[in-house]
Amino acid sequence: MKTKETLTPISSHGHCYVCGKENPHGIGLTWYAKEDGSIFSEFTLTTKQQGPLGHIHGGASAAVLDEVIGVAIWRAGYNVAVVNLDTRFRQAIPVDTTVTVEARMTEKNGRKIYGTGEIKLPNGSVAVSAKGIYIEAPHLFEENRYRD
Fold it and tell me: Helices in 33-131 by DSSP H: which ranges?
């Protein structure tokens, strides 16, 4: 990562498939809150997340984007679950390539809360992007998730 911006680590969440350290089959990402409210991570996916030979499965990319956008919205104070994730696959992500992901909450309109995110390759080009619509669903999660 080539930034001097302050990054605040966000604790993992138990058995979460994307960010839980207790899930032996999960991806195990670490999230960082940036000063501007966005969420960031730098990570490498492996053959455990492979789809087409030598490349990451689109579902793994979508799961990462769903979670990181959700984390950005959680950090803004809303306990949410995704109801729609519009995912754009622009470039295949090679297995064992270090990539970055960044997401942010963009808008709240009534019950709907919107966010966007991008996974970028080492050269800075966007491999996968997503726009999500989330709604508050506090009954599904503990209140303090991602707010340490």
Answer: 58-75
User: Does the residue 50 lie in any domain?
Assistant: yes
Compute the average pLDDT of residues 123-136.
Answer: 98
Task: Give Cβ neighbours of residue 94 (< 8 Å, ≥ 6 apart).
Answer: 54, 55, 56
Nearest to 62 by CA among 76, 77, 49, 44: 49
145 is a domain residue:
no
Residue 47's domain comprises 7-140
Sheet strands side by side (includes 80-89): 7-10, 31-34, 39-44, 98-109, 112-120, 126-136, 80-89
Q: Which residue has the higher pLDDT, 15 or 76?
A: 76
Q: How many domains is the chain partitioned into structurally?
A: 1
Question: Three-state SS for 83?
Answer: strand
Instruction: Please tell me the pTM assigned to this model.
Output: 0.91
Helices (H) then strands (E): counts for the chain = 1, 7
pLDDT tens, 95-107? Answer: 999 999 999 999 9
For residue 148, tell me if it sits in a domain: no
